[in-house]
Recover the amino acids of this structure.
């Protein structure tokens, strides 16, 4: 009975193991199919994103062509904003209401914290002016005002450079290696000079526009551009979602769990092998001893021993 139960238990375990193995193979096949579907969907989504981005670029280019001064001013505003961001590492709360230099300012006549606060206000005012629907509103007066803003930012960068040039480990409590690093990371004021020059050139061109050889094509409305921007964002989100799904199904499958050992109670009992009786004849030297008869057998022909035969 024990043998039957043990055999049945082993067969059950083997059957379960075979099922798990088959199921694992099926899961791998399903993952391969799923991965193939996601890859195809991702390819289509990327193609759609490229098409929608192309449409948005066409809309943007047509407006920039129609308003060259506004397009140039916006581009220089973006460059100058990026340059200011490259100085953030020198301040605590750099973009907040109360920016503070991270080391002691050796110049009492340079209120660098107040300068940075003023620069932050300029960048905040620029946010609406950087929108594409504002490009047609950037006229000569607006451009001149933005040029003044850029000049203020230039002074801010120059003052930072002057402060860093006079820093020492003694007056700043900074190691010389940090001072050298700060100086090397500070953007050059020459970039601001380039922006000022480009803005001035754009103002001149705006006041003296070249005659158009042909009428401009119909421009997209700002509402159409806003809708197209939304379409691009949706396409970007779809691509991102599919990339995340593809990353999940592309992960290597987990290692199979180790098979639990068969419980001892299900194993058949181990029976000891049958005992083997030793040979009753033992040979030593030239004699044979037969333990079953209790006699000693001498080699050679039979010999009658006197006094041992009762008959």
């Amino acid at each position: 009975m024990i043998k039957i139960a043990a055999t049945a238990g082993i067969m059950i375990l083997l059957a379960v193991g075979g099922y798990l193995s088959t199921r694992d193979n099926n899961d791998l096949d399903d993952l391969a199919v799923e991965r193939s579907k996601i890859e195809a969907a991702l390819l289509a989504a990327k193609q759609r994103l490229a098409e929608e981005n192309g449409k948005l670029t066409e809309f943007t280019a047509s407006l920039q062509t129609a308003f060259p001064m506004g397009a140039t001013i916006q581009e220089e505003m973006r460059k100058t904003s990026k340059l200011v961001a490259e100085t953030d590492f020198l301040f605590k709360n750099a973009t907040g209401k109360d920016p503070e230099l991270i080391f002691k300012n050796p110049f009492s006549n340079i209120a660098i914290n107040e300068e940075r606060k003023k620069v932050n206000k300029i960048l905040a005012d620029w946010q609406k002016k950087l929108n594409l629907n504002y490009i047609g509103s950037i006229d000569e007066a607006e451009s001149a005002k933005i040029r003044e803003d850029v000049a203020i930012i230039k002074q801010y960068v120059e003052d930072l450079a002057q402060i860093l040039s006079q820093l020492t480990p003694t007056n700043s409590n900074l190691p010389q290696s940090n001072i050298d690093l700060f100086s090397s990371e500070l953007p050059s004021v020459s970039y601001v000079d380039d922006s000022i020059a480009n803005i001035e050139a754009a103002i001149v061109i705006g006041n003296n526009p070249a005659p158009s050889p042909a009428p401009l094509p119909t421009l997209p409305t700002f509402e159409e551009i806003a809708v197209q921007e939304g379409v691009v964002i949706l396409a970007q989100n779809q691509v991102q979602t599919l990339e995340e799904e593809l990353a999940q199904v592309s992960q290597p499958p987990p290692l199979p769990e180790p098979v639990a050992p068969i419980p001892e109670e299900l194993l058949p009992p181990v029976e000891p092998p049958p005992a083997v009786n030793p040979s009753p004849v033992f040979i030593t030297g030239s004699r044979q001893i037969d333990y079953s008869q209790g006699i000693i057998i001498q080699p050679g022909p039979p010999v009658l021993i006197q006094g041992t035969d009762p008959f």
Summary: The radius of gyration is 47 Å. Residues 2-66 form the longest helix (65 residues). Strands lie at 91-92, 100-101, 281-284, 287-290, 295-297. Residues 1-6, 12-23 have pLDDT under 50 and may be disordered.
